[in-house]
Amino acid sequence: MKKSYIIGAVIIVAAMIMAMYSFKSTLTPYVTVHEAKAGKQAVQVAGIPVKGTARYDARSNNNLLFTLREDGGDEMVVEYDGQRPANFDEVTKVVAIGRYEPKKNVFTARQLLVKCPTKYEGRVKGE
Amino acid sequence: MNNFGEAMVALGLIAIGLSSLSYLVLCLKPDNGLARNMARLSFVGFSAFMTIASLLLMHFILNHEFLYSYVARYSSRSLPLEYLVSSFWAGQEGSFLLWVLLGSWLGIIVIFKAREREPQVMLIYNLNAVFLVILLIKQSPFRMLPIAPPDGQGLNMLLQDPWMVIHPPVVFLGYAAFAIPFAYAISALWRKEYDGWIKPALPWTVFSFMSLGAGIMIGGYWSYKVLGWGGYWGWDPVENASLLPWLAGTALMHGMVVQRTRKKLRKTNFVLAAFAFILVIYCTFLTRSGVLANFSVHSFVDLGITGWLVIFMLVFIAIFLGLFMARAKEISAPAGGKSMSYFSREFGLIVAMVLLCLSTVLTGLGTSAPLITRMFEKASKVSNEFYVHTNLPVALVMLLLLSFVPVMVWGKNSFSKLAPRLVWALIGAAVALGVTLLNGFPGTGVFLLSVLAGAAVGMNLFLAIKFVRRQISISGTAIAHLGVGLMFVGIVSSSAYDRSVKVSLPQGTVKSALAYDIDFEGPKMSRDGKGLRLHIPLNVNKDGTQFTAWPDIYSERARDGQVRRFVHPHIRRGLISDLYISPVDFDPGETKESGHEIVMQKGKKLRFHDYEFTFARFDVSRMMGDQGTHGGMTVGANIESSYKGGEPVTLKPVITIGQLHSPSSRVKLPGPQEAYLTLVKIDASAKTIGLVYEGPEPQEEKTTEKKLPSVIAEVSIKPGMTVLWLGTFLILVGAGIAVFRRWQ
User: Which H or E run includes B172?
Assistant: First the structure.
């Protein structure tokens, strides 16, 4: 039994180390547009969608494209393979989670979090 | 208390408290007949009060008693009966009531089945119920509004699906049932029967496994069918909340099987029973306390129960650890004393249990990431890659075990005896290998997963057929394991071989996507509940077979003024693969007007269709003359106009300010066609006029100038979905057979 305990412990420790590594590498920190363009890591960028820029482009598999502008005024084009959030024009804040792709000069988002006026205010109060 | 429903819940708390006290007496004096009757009767009373409270809530929902806040928030007059019923468990308060109700019914069965263990088992089981009823009082579904609104807010459109009617009851039955193995474990520690509890508790564990498993699978099926994102599992905290206790429960189930036959793993099974049960509370805490509100697509609001859930969890951890520590020395005396072979059925099962626990811990770690990270920095969640990366190796080893451990015997095995029996696993692996490579190498991890899933299917298919022929009641394990293998075959094929393309489909144009010709006929609107449903009929054609897909987009304006939009995919199921068409966005195009507006600048030439126009000058000659009769100013415009380069004619339309459509503002154009120009706008300062053209539109103009409604749709082919659902179904069938056999 002793030997099996040791083997088991080694497996579990190895798995935990692997998991911690994966855990850290898949956490997505909040960064600015500038930092997003500089790094390769998956990140979260917050900003507002610039009015009138949301469109679908056949050249990019009909994905949703829009320009995201952050507080400082920096902008980047975000590409998103998914549903356009229902009230995209009224959105006061959007968080794009994904990676910047220098080749295409777009930020490929795998998830969009949208904050609407009323909900967002409620959130601020609650925090 | 002026509220019958709340009174019932309060009486329920008194009854369950009384029952708990009586069971405590019974634990200390096992022969006390009065205490026994009292305990049982008050438990039945508790169950009755909960049943009445539930019937009451159902009555209020069915009769639209919007004075009750819960009824007003989750139902409305326009809901059909089945969704009125399911609004009972659409919100937190109602689903807690459902949990308590199902728990109270299960408790009555436990009383009948527990025999000599009844006092201890029911004491612990009741303690769980006490906590749940306290939560129910804290977040009561019977809270009243000062005045009843005329109509309720209705049920979330996403929940208006038959599967969502049955999903919560099935999940909460599982949640409620996980308290039973835990209660048996505590009773065993109390009574110092370290092996005896396994036999009566095992069927309950399998039952919990089956019920929660069915809930998880229904949830996945609903997600695939309704949400339109093309997947069935998103590693969302709410989904993980049901997966975690289920994985731990699966480990417990296997541990109990080992202990039943080999008298091993005594300590492990106590810990696992507690682990699975505590996870139920922990996951309730994660999803209901609002700690993950920013990280889940499901909206959960903190209703002030966070503290209670933490106390709830700590009390049970304390009870378990206290008893476990006190008995620790006695438990570990192994009954057999023989050392275990590493090449045996029990060792395979133990490895499987370690893997299941590993998966539970890793998935739990990921789900709790916002809680863990907020201690150091800003709370953030892990991406889905984390779950996939960590669970993939676990799944690989698990499938490897499934392809040979089921044919092993307890105790020492010899390889020479085992090897010939593995031929079916090899055949399965070879088939999977061939099929996988024919469809393209998917990467090492997925490739191995596919081959091992094939091996597991081959081995367990053989065993399932063998046992079903011999005696169906012993085939449960093999059928469930076959289901696991098939499920992974489905997971591999649907995720690694999923092909998807997004197409823009203007009305009336045939577009090709993944070898399907798709033709958008044009949108159809219908009113539905409080919103509008936009149906998008698509004629889909492939090799002569034709059908119409009806995906739709539903939108409604919620009370906070926000528009909510729900897309609804169309799925055409097939044995090999599903065709999945999900609308992404809809562009209504230009609304069709009877005329075509033209703006002209003074002195500029303009070509329009077959005409050439020149706006020469304003005509103010009649400004004075008509003033008296019409009471408004009359202004005209002189327009030189020619048809197909013919002789120019001067048109003199006039408009009278204050009069919208005077006959004199409309003039016929030269040429053979029935075509008119109407002067609608005059801007003297900018020297422009606005005109509306009515008449035949040349063919090419229609497509270039008029924007037709168009839809962007995602078309995907998802192979293996049917196999996946079949696999999950077989897991449940297998578990059902096992429960039936153990309870006979």
Answer: helix B162-177
B616 — phi, psi (to 5°)?
-75, -55
Cβ distance B339 to A1 less than 8 Å, yes or no, reads yes
Rg (CA), chain B: 35
pTM, 2 dp: 0.82
Q: What is the pLDDT of residue B144?
A: 93
Mutant choice from A62, A64, A88, A123 vs B, greatest count of B C-beta within 10 A: A62
Contact A86/B at CB under 8 A: yes
**Interface confidence (ipTM) of the complex:** 0.77
The pLDDT value given to residue B2: 67
Pairing of strands A43-49, A106-115: unpaired
Q: In this model, does residue A120 exceed pLDDT 50?
A: no
Chain A residue with CA closest to B556: the answer is A86
Q: What is the pLDDT of residue A86?
A: 67
Per-residue burial over B159-175, b if 16 or more Cβ lie within 10 Å, else e, is bbbebbbebbbbbbbbb
Residues of chain B with pLDDT under 70: 1-2, 293-303, 333-338, 378, 558-562, 590-596, 621-633, 656-663, 697-706
The residues that bridge with A78 in the sheet, in sequence order, are A66, A107
Please tell me the distance in Å from B291's CA to the nearest CA on chain A. 11
* Nearest CB partner across the interface for B562, out of A18, A26, A87: A87
- How many CB atoms are closer than 10 A to CB A43? 20
Residues B145 and B69: beta-carbon distance below 8 Å: yes
Counting Cβ atoms within 10 Å, is residue B409 exposed (0-12), middle (13-18) or buried (19+)? exposed
Instruction: Collect all residues of chain B within an 8 Å Cβ-Cβ radius of residue A22.
Output: 385-386, 389-390
Q: Looking up tokens 């085939």, which residue turns up? A: B475
CA B286 to CA B264: how far, in whole Å?
A: 34
- DSSP 3-state of B65: coil
pLDDT tens digit string along A22-66? 787 777 777 888 888 888 778 888 888 887 788 887 777 788 888
Q: Where are the alpha helices (DSSP H) in chain A?
A: 2-26, 33-38, 117-126
B156, B346, B392, B585: best mutation site toward chain A, by most A Cβ within 10 Å?
B585
- Count Cα atoms within 13 angstroms, Cβ side, for B126: 30
CB B661 within 8 A of CB B680: no
As given in the structure block, the two tokens for residue B108 are: 């009555």
Q: Report the gap between the CA of B362 and the closest CA in chain A (Å).
A: 7
Q: What is the structure's pLDDT at B619?
A: 80
**Could you tell me if B715 and B579 are in contact, meaning their C-beta atoms sit under 8 angstroms apart?**
yes
Q: What are phi and psi of B442, to 5 degrees?
A: -95, 10
* Secondary element (H or E) of residue A85: none
Q: What is the DSSP-derived secondary structure letter of residue B512? A: E
Identify which has the larger pLDDT, A81 or B354. B354
Q: What per-residue confidence (pLDDT) applies to B36?
A: 95
Tens of pLDDT, residue by residue over B187-210, are 999 999 999 999 999 999 999 999
